Amino acid sequence: MASNTGADALPSGGRIFVSIPDIFYIPEFVFGGLVWMLVASNRVIPENPLGWVMFVSVFCFVLTTLWFFIFLFGGNRSSIWPSLDVGFHFVAAVFYLSALVILAFLTVSKGNFVSAIDTTPNPAFAESLKNYRLDIAAVVMCSFATLLYFLHAIFSAIRWKSA
């Protein structure tokens, strides 16, 4: 019995720009890159949890870029690629979810600190408020990235099972 999981199951070339779930690559680049930039442009306190957030955003950005080019140039012709696609996007979604939880917790903690600072013209308050706003933006972008990777994993699983 022949399987359809081979050459026609996954799109390659320009078809990745119009097929679900591969259309999510570009938004994943955008939101993952924004998480990376927002966390990197911020003052990193505490270092360890935000180091994990940076690792996740850089790791997923680099691997999504690699994945995108493999699909774009047709290197995904083997029958193992549909399952690898599901696995990679699921792992990326779980990583981003863990980064989101850490980033949201640290942002709430920083918000409590910022609200405790005297709001009179104070350079420390202005710097803390700027960092707090960058953290809020990073949490929003990380939420979008998490959602996109979960959607990509779900639609990749549907495509894998239907092939």
How would you concisely characterize the structure shown here?
The chain has one domain (14-162). Helix content is 72%, strand content 0%. It has helices spanning 25-40, 47-72, 81-116, 123-162.
Which structural class is indicated by helix and strand composition?
mainly alpha
Question: What is the general shape?
Answer: elongated
The number of E-state strands comes to: 0
- How many discrete structural domains? 1
Please identify the oligomeric state. single chain
Number of helices: 4
Binned, the helix content reads over 70%
- What fraction strand? under 5%
Q: End-to-end span in angstroms?
A: 14 Å
Q: What are the defining features of this structure?
A:
lipoprotein, 163 residues, structural constituent of myelin sheath, MARVEL-CKLF_proteins, Marvel, mainly alpha
Describe this entry's structure for a reader.
GO terms for molecular function: structural constituent of myelin sheath. One of its GO terms (cellular component) is membrane. The chain has 163 residues and is an all-alpha fold. The protein has one domain. The chain is built from four helices and no strands. It has helices at 25-40, 47-72, 81-116, 123-162. α2 packs antiparallel against α3 and α3 packs antiparallel against α4 (123-162). The chain starts with 24 loop residues before the first helix and ends with a helix. Residues 1-7 have low confidence and may be disordered.
